[in-house]
């Protein structure tokens, strides 16, 4: 079986490592593997494989949906969720609307489009959190995202409009434990990994206590991880029930991640990531898999086997 690995071009160092490590795992299992950077002639290359291991996350409007769409047209099986699942999850407001429809708790919010004014009555109490509505991997998340008054709110919204040319999502800031939930598999092979708690308490004074791009890249050694997370059995069960609903209602496939905060034993879903990164020694889902005694190789093979079984 010939597998193509589609990935960002030009790749960052972390993306390059991810693609090469997955290539190594699959070759060790006897697969014929070809690396396919998404550049000028990638379309010809994907026509020549039996399955795609999809890692592609570049672009703006087409980010995460390009490869699934092409594979569906060309009838090529691929790993991960389909186009409409990615499209929904890429839009944080769409995600939150669906969560609200299914009565899954998420922070209250409003949206401000470029050239629009902040609503006169926002019906939310400070502190608030401001982020781009259609970005991922910590893009646009910085210390100034947490705002405590109207002046800071205006500045944070202006930053999103200027830097990303898209709507700003403003939501209630949930002070509490930050939890990541990872899934692998489908149907009878569906598995929820041990929950990951991200602890910011040992970050240097003055550094934000949330997962900004700066914290991810510069303070990884100061960030503590507990896996399994330090939660009561009651909260664990509630999170598990919510996670199962989200995997089903969002039509997620093969692997995914949900970001949650817990405040006063109340759960708030912050984000649904339909295509989490698989970077060794870095990505949250890797840490969760290791807590279940899965090696990096184990996780990659579970994902590819899940996709193969689904496409048979």
Protein model, in words:
It is a single chain. The chain has 312 residues and is α+β, with helices and mostly antiparallel strands. The protein has 3 domains: 2-78, Rossmann fold (3-Layer(aba) Sandwich); 108-172, ATP-grasp fold, A domain (Dna Ligase, domain 1, 2-Layer Sandwich), CATH 3.30.1490; 175-311, D-amino Acid Aminotransferase, Chain A, domain 1 (2-Layer Sandwich), CATH 3.30.470.20. It is built from 10 helices and 13 strands. The strands form 3 sheets. Strands 8, 9, 10, 11, 12 and 13 form a 6-stranded antiparallel beta sheet that branches. Helix 1 links the parallel strand 1 and strand 2. The model has no long low-confidence stretch (mean pLDDT 94).
Search tags:
alpha+beta; Rossmann fold; Dna Ligase, domain 1; D-amino Acid Aminotransferase, Chain A, domain 1; 3 domains; 6-stranded antiparallel β-sheet; 4-stranded antiparallel β-sheet
Summarize the structure.
This protein is an alpha+beta fold and 312 residues long. It has 10 helices and 13 strands.
Strand and helix layout:
Blueprint (H helix, E strand, L loop, with lengths): L1 E6 L5 H16 L3 E6 L4 H5 L4 E4 L11 H9 L8 H8 L1 H10 L7 E4 L15 E5 L13 E2 L2 H15 L3 E5 L4 E9 L5 E2 L3 E4 L13 H6 L5 E3 L6 H17 L4 E10 L2 E8 L10 H8 L4 H16 L1
Parallel strand pairs: 1-2, 1-3
Antiparallel strand pairs: 4-7, 5-6, 5-7, 8-9, 8-10, 8-12, 10-11, 12-13
- Largest sheet data: 6 strands, antiparallel
Q: How many structural domains are formed by the residues? A: 3
* Computed structural class: alpha+beta
Stated plainly, the CATH topology of the largest domain is called D-amino Acid Aminotransferase, Chain A, domain 1
Q: Quick one: CATH superfamily of the largest domain?
A: ATP-grasp fold, B domain
Order of helices and strands: EHEHEHHHEEEHEEEEHEHEEHH
- Give me the CATH architecture of the largest domain, please: 2-Layer Sandwich
Helix content: 25-40%
**Beta-strand content estimate:** 15-25%
State the low-pLDDT regions, or none.
Answer: none
CATH class of the largest domain: Alpha Beta
Task: Report, as a whole number of angstroms, the end-to-end distance.
Answer: 13 Å
Number of strands: 13
Number of helices: 10
Mean pLDDT: 94
Shape: globular
**From the alpha-carbon coordinates, what is the Rg to the nearest angstrom?**
19 Å
